[in-house]
Amino acid sequence: MDFRERLREEISFSGMSNKEVAATSGITLRSLVSYVSGQSCMPSADVAVRLAKALNTSVEYLVNGEQSVTKKTTEKEDTRKLLHIYNSLSDAQQRLLLAIAEDVAKLGK
């Protein structure tokens, strides 16, 4: 996975639109789209820092996929894995998984 793919994944994970990420990071939408689509090479360091902050991740993760392991990082990775699994399921499987998750959540109350 390269910068473009990690950036795309982080934008998806954030739930923000490209327009929101661009505004939050203080770059133009056109620039962001060029980074996500691969039309541009990696952004300058200051832009990468702003993108990382906007997406609540680290520059290290966006650039090389490495991240220091903290509890927050582990939870984020777990959430990302669950989201990836969920998105790979059929609609019926997604509904079933959501029903199971709701039942489990009720047990925790």
- What is the arithmetic mean of pLDDT? 86
Question: Order of SSEs, N→C?
Answer: HHHHHHH
Q: Radius of gyration from the CA trace?
A: 16 Å
Unreliable stretches covering 5 or more consecutive residues: none
Tell me the helix content. over 70%
Structure classification: mainly alpha
For the termini, the CA-CA separation is 39 Å
Count of DSSP strands: 0
> Given the structure, what is the number of helices?
7
* Largest beta-sheet details: none
**Shape, please?**
elongated
Content of β-strand: under 5%
Structural topology:
Elements: H1 3-14, H2 18-25, H3 29-37, H4 45-54, H5 59-64, H6 71-87, H7 91-107
Note the main attributes of this structure.
109 residues, mainly alpha, 7 helices, elongated
Written overview of the protein:
- The mean pLDDT is 86.
- With 109 residues, this protein is mainly alpha-helical.
- It has helices spanning 3-14, 18-25, 29-37, 45-54, 59-64, 71-87, 91-107.
- The relative contact order is 0.11.
- It contains 7 helices and no strands.
- The N and C termini lie far apart (39 Å).
- The chain is elongated.
